[in-house]
Write a structure and sequence with these properties.
282 residues; alpha+beta; 6-stranded mixed beta sheet; 5-stranded mixed beta sheet; 5 helices; 31% helix
Protein backbone atom coordinates (compact mmCIF):
# COMPACT_ATOMS: atom_id res chain seq x y z
CA UNK A 1 0.00 0.00 0.00
CA UNK A 2 2.93 2.33 0.66
CA UNK A 3 4.17 1.88 -2.90
CA UNK A 4 0.68 2.71 -4.21
CA UNK A 5 0.31 5.87 -2.10
CA UNK A 6 0.99 8.16 -5.07
CA UNK A 7 -1.42 6.33 -7.37
CA UNK A 8 -4.14 6.36 -4.70
CA UNK A 9 -3.77 10.12 -4.14
CA UNK A 10 -4.46 11.45 -7.66
CA UNK A 11 -4.70 15.15 -8.49
CA UNK A 12 -6.02 14.83 -12.04
CA UNK A 13 -8.71 13.04 -14.07
CA UNK A 14 -6.38 10.41 -15.54
CA UNK A 15 -4.86 9.59 -12.17
CA UNK A 16 -8.35 9.38 -10.65
CA UNK A 17 -9.39 6.97 -13.41
CA UNK A 18 -6.31 4.79 -12.80
CA UNK A 19 -7.03 4.70 -9.06
CA UNK A 20 -10.68 3.78 -9.70
CA UNK A 21 -9.67 0.82 -11.89
CA UNK A 22 -7.18 -0.39 -9.25
CA UNK A 23 -9.69 -0.11 -6.40
CA UNK A 24 -12.57 -1.69 -8.35
CA UNK A 25 -10.44 -4.63 -9.47
CA UNK A 26 -9.16 -5.14 -5.91
CA UNK A 27 -12.70 -5.13 -4.47
CA UNK A 28 -13.91 -7.67 -7.03
CA UNK A 29 -10.98 -9.97 -6.28
CA UNK A 30 -11.53 -9.65 -2.52
CA UNK A 31 -15.14 -10.81 -3.00
CA UNK A 32 -13.60 -14.12 -4.16
CA UNK A 33 -10.45 -14.21 -2.05
CA UNK A 34 -12.01 -13.58 1.38
CA UNK A 35 -14.69 -16.34 1.17
CA UNK A 36 -12.05 -18.72 -0.25
CA UNK A 37 -9.76 -18.11 2.74
CA UNK A 38 -12.69 -18.57 5.16
CA UNK A 39 -13.74 -21.84 3.49
CA UNK A 40 -10.13 -23.11 3.56
CA UNK A 41 -9.97 -22.61 7.33
CA UNK A 42 -13.46 -24.10 7.76
CA UNK A 43 -12.51 -27.23 5.79
CA UNK A 44 -9.35 -27.69 7.89
CA UNK A 45 -11.38 -27.31 11.09
CA UNK A 46 -14.40 -29.40 10.04
CA UNK A 47 -12.38 -32.33 8.70
CA UNK A 48 -9.92 -32.47 11.59
CA UNK A 49 -9.03 -35.94 12.87
CA UNK A 50 -10.97 -35.51 16.14
CA UNK A 51 -14.30 -34.74 14.38
CA UNK A 52 -15.96 -38.14 14.05
CA UNK A 53 -19.10 -36.55 12.57
CA UNK A 54 -17.26 -35.42 9.43
CA UNK A 55 -18.11 -37.62 6.44
CA UNK A 56 -15.10 -39.59 5.23
CA UNK A 57 -15.06 -40.66 1.55
CA UNK A 58 -11.71 -42.32 0.85
CA UNK A 59 -12.69 -43.45 -2.66
CA UNK A 60 -14.37 -40.21 -3.79
CA UNK A 61 -12.77 -38.84 -6.96
CA UNK A 62 -15.14 -36.58 -8.90
CA UNK A 63 -18.08 -34.19 -8.52
CA UNK A 64 -19.54 -32.37 -11.49
CA UNK A 65 -21.08 -29.73 -9.22
CA UNK A 66 -17.79 -28.99 -7.51
CA UNK A 67 -15.99 -28.83 -10.86
CA UNK A 68 -18.64 -26.41 -12.17
CA UNK A 69 -18.18 -24.12 -9.17
CA UNK A 70 -14.37 -24.39 -9.18
CA UNK A 71 -14.13 -23.39 -12.85
CA UNK A 72 -17.12 -21.09 -13.35
CA UNK A 73 -16.38 -18.65 -10.51
CA UNK A 74 -12.79 -17.84 -11.64
CA UNK A 75 -13.89 -17.62 -15.29
CA UNK A 76 -16.77 -15.26 -14.48
CA UNK A 77 -14.49 -13.21 -12.22
CA UNK A 78 -11.84 -12.86 -14.93
CA UNK A 79 -14.48 -11.88 -17.50
CA UNK A 80 -15.95 -9.28 -15.15
CA UNK A 81 -12.59 -7.79 -14.17
CA UNK A 82 -11.44 -7.88 -17.80
CA UNK A 83 -14.52 -5.95 -18.90
CA UNK A 84 -14.14 -3.49 -16.04
CA UNK A 85 -10.50 -2.80 -16.86
CA UNK A 86 -11.04 -2.70 -20.64
CA UNK A 87 -13.80 -0.09 -20.38
CA UNK A 88 -11.75 2.01 -17.95
CA UNK A 89 -8.57 1.67 -19.99
CA UNK A 90 -10.38 2.61 -23.21
CA UNK A 91 -11.60 5.81 -21.58
CA UNK A 92 -8.02 6.51 -20.44
CA UNK A 93 -6.40 5.89 -23.84
CA UNK A 94 -3.20 7.99 -23.59
CA UNK A 95 -3.68 9.19 -27.19
CA UNK A 96 -7.20 10.49 -26.43
CA UNK A 97 -7.33 14.27 -25.78
CA UNK A 98 -8.87 15.33 -22.48
CA UNK A 99 -12.07 17.37 -22.73
CA UNK A 100 -11.49 20.99 -21.71
CA UNK A 101 -12.40 24.54 -22.63
CA UNK A 102 -8.76 25.57 -22.24
CA UNK A 103 -6.31 25.04 -25.10
CA UNK A 104 -3.96 22.08 -24.65
CA UNK A 105 -0.37 22.78 -23.63
CA UNK A 106 2.22 20.99 -25.78
CA UNK A 107 5.29 19.51 -24.09
CA UNK A 108 7.96 17.43 -25.82
CA UNK A 109 9.75 14.93 -23.57
CA UNK A 110 13.13 13.32 -24.23
CA UNK A 111 14.53 10.53 -22.08
CA UNK A 112 18.30 10.83 -21.69
CA UNK A 113 20.96 9.03 -19.63
CA UNK A 114 19.95 9.73 -16.83
CA UNK A 115 17.73 12.77 -16.92
CA UNK A 116 14.60 14.14 -18.57
CA UNK A 117 14.46 16.97 -21.08
CA UNK A 118 11.20 18.93 -21.44
CA UNK A 119 10.74 21.22 -24.44
CA UNK A 120 7.85 23.71 -24.56
CA UNK A 121 7.57 24.36 -28.32
CA UNK A 122 4.84 27.02 -28.06
CA UNK A 123 6.72 28.95 -25.38
CA UNK A 124 10.12 28.36 -27.01
CA UNK A 125 11.81 27.23 -23.77
CA UNK A 126 13.15 23.99 -22.33
CA UNK A 127 13.94 22.51 -18.91
CA UNK A 128 15.86 19.57 -17.51
CA UNK A 129 14.37 17.49 -14.69
CA UNK A 130 11.68 20.09 -14.10
CA UNK A 131 8.12 20.08 -15.43
CA UNK A 132 5.81 23.02 -14.76
CA UNK A 133 2.18 22.93 -15.92
CA UNK A 134 -0.85 25.18 -15.39
CA UNK A 135 -3.69 23.92 -13.20
CA UNK A 136 -6.80 22.80 -15.09
CA UNK A 137 -5.08 22.81 -18.48
CA UNK A 138 -4.69 19.54 -20.42
CA UNK A 139 -1.10 18.78 -21.35
CA UNK A 140 -0.23 16.80 -24.48
CA UNK A 141 3.10 15.05 -24.07
CA UNK A 142 5.06 13.84 -27.10
CA UNK A 143 7.61 11.40 -25.71
CA UNK A 144 10.74 9.85 -27.20
CA UNK A 145 14.10 8.52 -26.03
CA UNK A 146 17.57 9.61 -27.05
CA UNK A 147 19.05 6.43 -25.64
CA UNK A 148 17.43 3.16 -24.53
CA UNK A 149 13.81 2.27 -23.70
CA UNK A 150 12.48 4.11 -20.70
CA UNK A 151 9.13 4.73 -19.03
CA UNK A 152 7.72 8.19 -18.28
CA UNK A 153 5.55 8.17 -15.16
CA UNK A 154 4.00 10.78 -12.86
CA UNK A 155 2.14 8.57 -10.35
CA UNK A 156 -0.31 11.21 -9.06
CA UNK A 157 -1.25 12.28 -12.59
CA UNK A 158 -1.46 8.75 -13.99
CA UNK A 159 -0.67 6.49 -16.97
CA UNK A 160 2.97 5.47 -17.35
CA UNK A 161 4.06 5.20 -20.98
CA UNK A 162 7.16 4.06 -22.85
CA UNK A 163 9.78 6.48 -24.14
CA UNK A 164 11.24 4.63 -27.12
CA UNK A 165 14.14 5.56 -29.40
CA UNK A 166 13.21 6.27 -32.99
CA UNK A 167 9.51 6.84 -32.35
CA UNK A 168 7.09 9.11 -30.50
CA UNK A 169 4.59 8.08 -27.83
CA UNK A 170 1.74 10.36 -26.78
CA UNK A 171 0.12 11.03 -23.43
CA UNK A 172 -2.55 13.44 -22.19
CA UNK A 173 -2.54 14.46 -18.52
CA UNK A 174 -4.05 17.20 -16.41
CA UNK A 175 -3.59 18.52 -12.87
CA UNK A 176 -6.77 19.79 -11.20
CA UNK A 177 -5.10 21.60 -8.33
CA UNK A 178 -1.81 23.24 -7.46
CA UNK A 179 0.77 20.81 -6.10
CA UNK A 180 4.43 19.88 -6.11
CA UNK A 181 4.84 16.21 -6.91
CA UNK A 182 7.41 13.80 -8.32
CA UNK A 183 7.87 12.12 -11.66
CA UNK A 184 10.17 9.22 -12.32
CA UNK A 185 11.62 6.66 -14.66
CA UNK A 186 9.75 3.36 -14.29
CA UNK A 187 12.08 1.25 -16.44
CA UNK A 188 15.57 0.11 -15.46
CA UNK A 189 17.91 1.84 -17.88
CA UNK A 190 21.39 1.58 -16.44
CA UNK A 191 23.57 2.96 -13.66
CA UNK A 192 21.74 6.23 -13.08
CA UNK A 193 18.23 4.85 -13.22
CA UNK A 194 17.56 5.20 -9.50
CA UNK A 195 18.27 8.94 -9.68
CA UNK A 196 16.28 9.57 -12.85
CA UNK A 197 13.56 11.58 -11.12
CA UNK A 198 12.12 14.97 -11.97
CA UNK A 199 10.04 17.52 -10.11
CA UNK A 200 6.55 18.40 -11.26
CA UNK A 201 4.77 21.62 -10.29
CA UNK A 202 1.19 22.42 -11.17
CA UNK A 203 0.59 26.14 -10.72
CA UNK A 204 -2.18 28.69 -11.48
CA UNK A 205 -2.22 30.20 -14.99
CA UNK A 206 -0.78 33.53 -13.87
CA UNK A 207 2.11 31.84 -12.06
CA UNK A 208 2.78 29.64 -15.08
CA UNK A 209 2.99 32.72 -17.32
CA UNK A 210 5.35 34.41 -14.85
CA UNK A 211 7.49 31.26 -14.74
CA UNK A 212 7.73 31.17 -18.56
CA UNK A 213 8.75 34.84 -18.64
CA UNK A 214 11.37 34.17 -15.97
CA UNK A 215 12.86 31.26 -17.90
CA UNK A 216 12.97 33.33 -21.09
CA UNK A 217 15.01 35.97 -19.30
CA UNK A 218 17.86 33.76 -18.10
CA UNK A 219 19.96 30.77 -19.05
CA UNK A 220 21.54 29.43 -22.23
CA UNK A 221 19.95 28.46 -25.54
CA UNK A 222 19.19 24.81 -26.25
CA UNK A 223 20.69 24.28 -29.68
CA UNK A 224 22.34 21.17 -31.06
CA UNK A 225 25.66 22.04 -29.42
CA UNK A 226 24.00 22.37 -25.99
CA UNK A 227 22.04 19.20 -26.64
CA UNK A 228 25.27 17.32 -27.37
CA UNK A 229 26.40 18.15 -23.84
CA UNK A 230 23.06 16.94 -22.42
CA UNK A 231 23.42 13.70 -24.34
CA UNK A 232 26.48 12.77 -22.29
CA UNK A 233 25.73 10.36 -19.47
CA UNK A 234 25.40 12.02 -16.08
CA UNK A 235 23.89 11.35 -12.66
CA UNK A 236 21.81 13.37 -10.20
CA UNK A 237 21.36 16.29 -12.57
CA UNK A 238 19.80 19.31 -10.79
CA UNK A 239 16.83 21.09 -12.45
CA UNK A 240 17.86 23.70 -15.01
CA UNK A 241 16.30 25.67 -17.86
CA UNK A 242 16.99 27.09 -21.30
CA UNK A 243 15.66 30.48 -22.35
CA UNK A 244 15.25 29.34 -25.94
CA UNK A 245 15.04 25.97 -27.69
CA UNK A 246 15.63 24.90 -31.28
CA UNK A 247 12.13 24.22 -32.69
CA UNK A 248 13.32 21.31 -34.80
CA UNK A 249 15.32 19.62 -32.07
CA UNK A 250 12.67 17.17 -30.87
CA UNK A 251 11.88 16.03 -34.43
CA UNK A 252 15.59 15.51 -35.11
CA UNK A 253 15.94 13.43 -31.92
CA UNK A 254 12.81 11.34 -32.57
CA UNK A 255 13.77 10.59 -36.18
CA UNK A 256 17.39 9.97 -35.12
CA UNK A 257 18.74 12.64 -37.42
CA UNK A 258 20.80 13.36 -34.32
CA UNK A 259 22.45 10.02 -33.43
CA UNK A 260 21.24 8.57 -30.11
CA UNK A 261 23.44 8.22 -27.06
CA UNK A 262 25.36 4.99 -26.46
CA UNK A 263 23.11 3.83 -23.61
CA UNK A 264 24.29 1.61 -20.76
CA UNK A 265 27.15 -0.67 -21.76
CA UNK A 266 29.34 -3.18 -19.88
CA UNK A 267 32.10 -1.54 -17.89
CA UNK A 268 35.59 -2.42 -18.95
CA UNK A 269 38.29 -1.40 -21.45
CA UNK A 270 35.85 -1.51 -24.38
CA UNK A 271 33.12 0.61 -22.87
CA UNK A 272 33.47 3.41 -25.46
CA UNK A 273 34.40 6.12 -22.96
CA UNK A 274 31.43 5.49 -20.71
CA UNK A 275 31.63 6.98 -17.22
CA UNK A 276 32.27 4.75 -14.25
CA UNK A 277 29.08 4.83 -12.20
CA UNK A 278 28.87 6.87 -9.03
CA UNK A 279 25.07 6.91 -9.11
CA UNK A 280 22.41 5.28 -7.01
CA UNK A 281 20.09 6.75 -4.47
CA UNK A 282 21.29 6.96 -0.87
Amino acid sequence: MTSCSGILAPIGPVGAGNAEILIDATVVMLVIVIPTIIVAFWVAWHYRASNAAAEYLPYWSYSGRIEAVVWSIPILTIMFIGGLIWIGSYRLDPFRPLPSRDPTLEVEVVSLDWKWLFIYPEQGIATVNQLVMPVGTPVHFSITSASVFNVFFIPRLGSMIYAMPGMVSELHLQADRAAQIAGLSAQFSGDGFSDMDFEVRSVPDAEFGAWVDGVRGTGPTLDQAAYSELLKQSHRVPPSSYRAADRGLFHAIATQQIPPGPGPQPEGPGHAGREVSTGGSD
